[in-house]
Amino acid sequence: MLRSAENFNHGNTGMKTEEATALWQQMFSLADRMRDIGSSDYKQLLVNMTFNQLRMIKIVYVLNREYPEGVTLKVLAESLSITPAAASEMVDALVRKGMLTREHNPQDRRAVAITLAPFSRKKFLECEQTFDRQTIDFLESLEENERAIFMSVMAKFHDFVFNHCGDQE
Predict the structure, then answer these.
(1) Residues 82, 88, 93, 97, CA torsion sign
(2) Is residue 76 part of a domain?
(3) What domain range includes position 75?
(4) Buried-most residue among 12, 49, 157, 168 (CB within 10 A)?
């Protein structure tokens, strides 16, 4: 279980709660800024979408890496922790908006294959290219030893958060 800030024993490190707060606030601010930059090209389109629709589009994008021929409704529903019927309704709405495609699986006519529509795929790729350019520019601004330390610390923090934080609370 994670310890609260009030009773957190900082041990011999001298780490202060204020330092930890400043770090996570900077990380949240950075994530918000990157999200704003990534969505700037198609903000008007996003206005007409619900949070759950945006979440579904992102999940389809991620799952299409593993399932390039298309993700099934069952897998998509499980990834979103919703019923297949609810997933089907959301997919239908996003197909009507031109964000997703829904086609019958050639191997199993009962199953459907869900992929990003070309417009959505193009926007995700443009967004990734923007993030790549910004990240490369930042990393190139660092000395080689700074870059190695930064990458190492980020990997450690990522692993810590994914291995020690979350469901145990």
Answers:
(1) positive
(2) yes
(3) 43-117
(4) 49
For the question of whether the overall pTM of this predicted structure is more than 0.90, the answer is no
CATH of the domain at 78: 1.10.10.10
* pLDDT tens-digit map of 116-126: 999 888 888 88
Question: Does residue 68 belong to any structural domain of this protein?
Answer: yes
Number of domains, the chain: 1
Domain annotation covers residue 100: yes
CA–CA separation, 57 and 68 (whole Å) = 15
76 and 114 Cβ atoms separated by less than 8 Å: yes
Buried b (16+ CB within 10 A) or exposed e, 66-99: eeeebbbbebbbebbebeeeebbebbeebeebeb
Question: Residues 131, 38: contact at Cβ < 8 Å?
Answer: yes
pLDDT mean over 31-46: 70
In a domain, residue 72? The reply is yes
